[in-house]
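Job type: complex structure
Entries:
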Amino acid sequence: MALAFLAPSLLGMLVFFVYPLVMTVFYSFTAFSLSKPPHVNGLANWRYLFGGDPLIGKATLNTLWFVLILVPARMVGALFIAWVLTRARRSAGALRTVYYLPALIPPVASTIAFVFVLNPATGPVNVMLRNLGISNPPGWFTSEPWAKPSLTFLGLWVLGDLMVIFLASLLDVPTEQYEAAELDGANGGQRFWYVTIPNIEPVLLFALITGVIFALQYFTEPAVASATAQGKATVGAGTSGLLGWPGSSTLTYGQLLYQRAFHSNLMGYASAMAVVLFAVTAVVIAVLLRRFRAFSPEVAS
Amino acid sequence: MTTRTIRRRAVVVTAVAAVAALGLTACSGGGSTGPSVAASAPPTVSGTIQFWHFFTDREATVIQGVVDDFMAANPGVKVDVQSGQDDEKMRQAISAGQPVDVGLSYSTDQVGPLCSSGDFVDLTTYIQRDGVDLNQIPDTVRGYTEFGGKRCTMPALADVYGLYFNKKMLADAGYANPPKTLDELADMAVKLTSYNADGSIKTLGLMPLLGYYENSEAHWAPSTGAEWLNADGTSAISSSPGWAEFLTWQKGLIERLGGFDKLSAFQAALGQEFSEQNDFQTGRVAMNIDGEYRTAFIADQTPNLDYGTAPLPVGKAHTDLYGGGYVTGNIIGIGKGSKNPEAAWALIKYLTTNTDAQVKLTNGLKNVPTWKPAIDSPNLQLPAQFTTFLDIFDNKNLVTTPPSTIGADYQTILGTHTQDWQAGKVDDVNAMLKQVDDEINAAVKLAG
């Protein structure tokens, strides 16, 4: 009986999760172009993954960069703005809206707009920087060292989604605890560390896990930024030479996977990449969950 | 066919979607043999067929106009046009056996996989039965529309690349004619470049950096006769001297114009390629490589620009190659899941071999016609600058990029290295090209 009730969701899971997963693992041991039936080629894809593919190292490091920089930057930024908003006495509602609005813009549009705003020659940002006396402002999306930081700034601009949940959880922290801590002589920093953080920890964990998953699959923003900065405000055109520009500096794992699958016709190899991505994501999340449970058992359990 | 870059819906896929797609294509593959062909052409065709293509907006209207003509001539047929269909989506639909009767694609790079897999059915029987004269299609175009002796696609217009030059800027610098050799091109590029007080580039004679608009390895390759692949599909890049010759020339010009950093800063400020802010249309660059479709953009966006067109300049050891250039084009075929292949073939035959249809498409899209009688038709309404591209198209040195099991990835692999090369991160061009060979060959081997 229980099984009958579960059947619809089990069926959905089998068809849309288990079956694709099993097939992806199978394809990772085959040579497979979309049109030809797959034929088993042993470990060839895996050997190429761990020693042949000239771009995989770069793509992995770039993705790691986003996990380590973009995700914490967005969390700290969102937490800071949420905290400022809890302090706002007047027009808090209007400010909330203002900070949330960029998150409503579709990512393709916001990225194109951001690349235009940061255009090194014609964009308003560098014009302002020059007026402020900085004679040689960065090239942003057109310069290798600045392309990833530029994407991080973009991520900070559209952090409204995180900001809103942080704000809600900050407002949920019982004021009695702050008062009690204050009576005990805790200063601002201590109140934040010993009262605020433990109270909002589940939300922080949620933001961290979804953020890491997002960063591991980071695709849309770098793909659009790369093309727009090259003067071709579109993605996926003809050859995949557009991805990762300038100089593979924004080529992420997800983009390389897409390129290998749909431009190089190496579906089998792309499947191997997908399996690795899945495994890495699963491990990272498992580790995060364990660490946080150890840190604060009563919250996470 | 501006199309290849702008007219197409943006494909923005997350890794998750890609993973899902990898899984969901499990049902594809299969050994469908496609429809059988009647012994003689039916006197009339009827029924409904699905026609998938990638055009949108103004260009989709042009296509619809020609399809309407076809339906008027064949009253029994209803063509269900699906416009704005991205190539990858169409390939997935066809390989999953969906009834895509007629598919129009811009990727000649996919002719190999499409033909060898049987996703697009072999058209030979139809062609022979109906007595279609393939000699009316230029040789190079015939070459890129078939694979391994199997003709599974027909050409529906082409893109040809050449040199655009700003007549006024050239005249001001004392030049009456466009350059014919790479050395002339470099000298003129230097003379046509002006600098701001701070040393940055104000206007540029020619941008030597690859990756700038249509400045790609594929479009430059004809200038030195550089070749991509051997007959067996392996890389010919390091053994084809044209590559080192072109890249060395390019590096020299980069230095003469002030170096990579200066040119990068200039490139960073470029206008969007398909807007009126295109650097050639605004006069930021005096000369530029571009496709014939640029004539339509100039007529539409900057009609007062005084410009000319010429074939690509060639290396001094390759003067015999002058007049040729790079070509690529749209391909059209019958999907293996078609339930009404006779009507599908009738539409393909109409779009690719009917002179009036080709002329109408050409006048509307401002692409190069692929049917010789249409090329010679007095009804073509094209700007004077377009003639250059018809001549390049007709030249014996017209070349294209060869089909490969790894699609266009061999071009991407070279491009990854030339980015380092032009930035000055590589010293030994021949060692670099050998590494390109290795990487291409490894990928080709993996594709099996």
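Summary: Chain B touches chain A through 74 residues (CB under 8 Å). The CA atoms of residues 308 and 384 of chain B lie 9 Å apart.
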